[in-house]
Amino acid sequence: MSLRYLSNTASTEEIAAVIMEDGGVIIRNYLQPETLEGLRKDLLPLLEQTPGGADEYFAGGKTGRISRIFNRTDHMVDVALNPLYLETARAILQTPIKGWSGEMQYEIAPDIQIGATQAIQIRPGQGKQPLHRDDGVWMWRHPHYGREARLQIMVAISDFTKENGATHVIPGSHKWDDERMPTVEESVQAEMSAGDALLWIGSTYHGGGENVSNAPRTGLTMAYDLALLRQEENHYLSLPIERVRQFPEELQRLLGWSCSSTFMGWVESGGQFVNPQDLLKQEGFREVGLID
After folding, report:
1. 111-145 pLDDT, tens digit each
2. Staple 158 to which of 20, 80, 218, 275, CB 3.0 to 4.6 Å?
């Protein structure tokens, strides 16, 4: 089984259907050329100064990683709010449920939020990363009875080839239980041109490839997760409030500055239970505390 390629004119419904069947999909020309160049200009100098990971097993001693991407480049907004990704995440993750409040029956869907962000540079000589599932951070069990926890994206900042460490993916592995061990022989590599993007769900086995070339392989990844789960990256500490205020309101909400449809995330201020969005709009609100 191989990964399918779709154009950037594909519909959300088509993208979501392929992902739910195969576990992932590659979108051609996900980034506009000016966005790709902007990301390179902002992130490559930072990666050049970043040492390899602390361990050889998973992080990779010859792999550079940086996070806090929304604080490091304005172009991350274009990656996150691209409808090809955002609306597909909503279609896959926001599965509604029914419940009761007294005698009133209601239907409600979970919100989504931005999880981890990373720029990852696999350098020459780096070996394969172990195949893994990203939803393991929440100890998500499989089968999961119809609800996925995450939709991840990996945007190719450089070309992804078999030689330079293109991501290994096992199509169909999202349908496996937790007893089946993944093997590299079952995987295919997500070969992409710079500007393409790989989308995959948290239950799909994948891992960085071995770089046997003489140049680094650079990608940018982030996740949309169910908002009822803890964010993998703590954006409240990594992003200053003044930086968050610069973002569109939709992005502020996706970063966690909101009260969800299930009433999670409220803040008590002056005896009232308020939406964090209201605090962002108050000029006197800073990191030091709340307004009373």
Report:
1. 999 999 999 999 999 999 999 999 999 999 998 77
2. 218
